[in-house]
Amino acid sequence: MKTIFSGIQPSGTLTIGNYLGAIKQFVELQNNYDCYFCIVDQHAITVPQEPKELKEHIRSLAALYIASGINPDKATLFIQSDVPAHVELGWMLQSMTYMGELERMTQFKDKSEGKSAVSSALFTYPTLMAADILLYQANIVPVGDDQTQHLELTRNVAERFNNRFGNTFTIPDIKVPETGARVMSLQEPTKKMSKSDENVRGFISMLDTPKQMEKKIKSAVTDSEGIITYDKENKPGVSNLLSLYSALTNQSIDASVAHFSGKRYGDFKVEIAETVVSTLIPIQERYNELIHSSELDDILSEGAKKANRTANQTLKKAKQKMGLGK
To answer: Which active-site residues does the annotation give?
Structure first.
């Protein structure tokens, strides 16, 4: 069975874009792969965090993973900081990574733009991300298309390590979902939906109330043509809603366009809102059962034990290859 690794930052409540681009895919993948799903809290601190809020976000994210269908009997769910090998291997890989490679990372450019000062961790965190993946000898890493550059760096650093010290790490393949990989803002459909958007109407949180979901969908930007067709360049708003509906219903874009043929934008938005609500309400119900339960603590503790066993084996091998330790 091939291994999959993926991680999500606990930097706020997940959006429906995170669900469709990541967690929904994970639920399907866990049946056929050895899956490691990590709450990457050490990545979150590359920018300032309030400790109390960070702890709440970690727990909330873990509960959403399980509520969305991640089965701890099939997949390993754990918190990154509970596995010290991540930071140790991250430092080792940093010694194998070039400044020029990190300077080319567009995510660093985006996150540091306009700021008078940023942490050095924001610059070097792609090497920690590489360690996250390589510790579990992942064959496949499912990511949104905005993360492919970091995966290419991971592949390059792993190959460089293997070439210098001998075969140590599996070179991971990148898996970008065909649908739902990049849900756009409801208010600015040329920008990716983000939980950090200052305009709360631009994203749907997985914990929004039904009324909030409906209101946000109804206020989503479309255009004045009144024709429901898929054209990302000329009709980004309508195309984004079609992508959202297609991913939620597991239909092709063409099938979704045919389904809404001849309908008005108002009816179009009402049905999409109903689909969003019917998808998220069962998840929210299970989430509320988990969030303050000992069941969630037990799942995360067991996940950390499994992750530590695997990660420490890889770390020991890598340290021996580099000549570290006794």
So the answer is: 111, 192, 195
User: What secondary structure does DSSP assign to 7-29, as a single string?
Assistant: EE--SSPPBHHHIIIIIHHHHHH
Residue closest to 57 by CA, chosen among 243, 205, 253, 276: 205
Closest CA to 64 of 233, 207, 228: 207
Contacts 24+ apart (CB under 8 A), 291-294: 291/59, 291/60, 291/63
Tokens of 276: 């969003």
Are 303 and 75 within 8 A, CB to CB? no
pLDDT of residue 253: 93
Q: Burial level of 139, CB count in 10 A (0-12/13-18/19+)?
A: middle
How is residue 44 written in tokens? 């979150």
Quick: pLDDT tens for 207-241. Answer: 999 999 999 999 999 999 999 999 999 999 999 99
Q: In angstroms, how far is CA 263 from the centroid of its own chain?
A: 34
